Amino acid sequence: MNPLQKQVRIWLGVALLALIAGCLTQESKVDAINAINAAFKAEYEAELARNGTHFVNANPNGAFDAVYASFVKLGLVVTQQSRGLGLITAQAPAPTPLSQEEWESASANDLPKAKELLRRYIGGAAEFFHFEPKGLDTVMTATMLGTRGGAEISFTMRMHEVTPIQQGLPRREYPPPTALKVGLDKTWATVDKELARRKP
């Protein structure tokens, strides 16, 4: 397929999506995304229970500094911090902290389930759905608590709408499950490197 054919196919797909979306009620669109949010929330909570909290062999100040540095290295901008409360919030345009390639790979893994859920509410329009990161910010929050012999670090990772979505559907609140897993793994690996670098 040459570039012109590809461009024509994309525009036809967009036009068809707009036509189909125009036939859908706002209620069905909201119900569709609520269904995805409910399903992804359950997986989100399960993943946080599995890999959202780690014990580290560092004092709370050291943990705080390592997390702060890790957020910056991953491309996130710290928007709120309190060393006394052990709290850092940071955000950046999605798909950060994932690369575009990591986001696309993770999304491809979760797309079949999302489309299956959407078909129940919006029928054939579900085929045009994709996990578009444009217009979304990733918001990560870290809490650090001192414990005996070290510190406990906990992360959350949510999506925040910045500009309206172009797919004619309401926004999702939770990242695709695989994207969450990849994002957490990447963040923990960066924190571990920062902690190791800071050891005397």
Explain this structure to me?
This protein is an alpha+beta fold. The protein contains 5 helices and 5 strands. It has one domain (25-198): Alpha-D-Glucose-1,6-Bisphosphate, Chain A, domain 4. Helices cover 53% and strands 20% of the residues. A 5-stranded antiparallel sheet has the order 1-5-4-3-2.
Q: What is the tally of helical segments?
A: 5
* Structure summary, number of beta strands: 5
Rg measurement, Å: 19 Å
Distance between the termini: 58 Å
Summarize the biggest pleated sheet.
5 strands, antiparallel
Q: And the CATH topology?
A: Alpha-D-Glucose-1,6-Bisphosphate, Chain A, domain 4
SSE inventory with pairings:
Layout: H1 3-23, H2 26-51, E1 53-56, H3 60-73, E2 77-82, E3 87-93, H4 100-122, E4 136-147, E5 150-161, H5 177-198
Antiparallel strand pairs: 1-5, 2-3, 3-4, 4-5
Helix pairs in contact: 2-4, 2-5, 3-5, 4-5
Could you provide a short overview of the structure?
With 200 residues, the protein is of the alpha+beta class.
Main attributes of the structure:
200 residues; 20% strand; Alpha-D-Glucose-1,6-Bisphosphate, Chain A, domain 4; 5 helices; alpha+beta; 5-stranded antiparallel beta sheet
